[in-house]
Amino acid sequence: MSNTPMAASPLTRAVLEIDEYVSGLGWDQPARLFALVDTARLRAQEPSLAAQLGLEDESETAGLTPIEQDELPSGKPLDEFLGTIAWPDAVAGCALAVERLMLPPSAEAQVPSGLDEAGLARWVAEHPERQEVRMTVAVLRDGSRESALRLREKDSPTEVLTGPDLVPGLADALVATFAD
Questions:
Q1: 17-47, pLDDT tens digit by residue?
Q2: Whose CB among 55, 80, 98, 125 lies 3.0–4.6 Å from 50's, allowing a Cys bridge?
Q3: Do 127 and 106 meet the contact criterion of CB atoms below 8 Å apart?
């Protein structure tokens, strides 16, 4: 199913697998939340679920399986929603795929002062250098993190950027969902 590189870490493979899945749904999608579970543990503790997910024949023992969660509530800011999440112990990590508009760093100096959040969003949406981007960010309980960024204008698996620090604020918010 996946074109993710086998040499990558389990977390990187999970991020790329989620990016590939969400990419197949097209653009203009709502944010999607995923639990990340240890594949070997899932096969041992939930064999019927592992079979439903097509994992019963997997030879890999160190992988992570993304499991999409219910749709995020509309009308609630993402940061507020993330503050309400508590994961059971069986969840090793989580991931979020979300689309946003972003500007190049050179545009920061052009931001008009005194804009409220809605005004800033309008200004960014009208800026000629704006880019639509899908960010997929995953974290583990131990704080490990990985991200994948896909620009709408370069919507190709070979153009996906990956790295642990591409979206640090979102990664921090996801790590906080595991705080006691």
A1: 999 999 999 999 999 999 999 888 877 777 7
A2: 55
A3: no
100, 110 contact by CB (below 8 A): no
What is the Cα gyration radius of the chain? 17
Q: Is 31 exposed, middle or buried (0-12, 13-18, 19+ CB in 10 A)?
A: middle
Please tell me the distance from the alpha carbon of residue 99 to that of residue 133, in angstroms, as a whole number.
6
Torsion of CA 163, 3, 89, 134, to 10 degrees: 50
| Whole-structure pTM value | 0.82
User: Kind and range of the H or E element at 50?
Assistant: helix 47-52
**Of 55, 79, 84, 76, the residue nearest 67 (C-alpha):** 55
Count of other CB atoms within 10 angstroms of residue 134: 20
Q: How many CA atoms lie within 13 A of 110 on its CB side?
A: 12
Exposed, middle or buried: residue 46 (CB in 10 Å: 0-12, 13-18, 19+)? middle
* Predicted local confidence at residue 92, as pLDDT: 94
- Is 148's pLDDT higher than 90? yes
Query: What's the burial of 148, exposed, middle or buried (CB within 10 Å: 0-12/13-18/19+)?
Result: buried
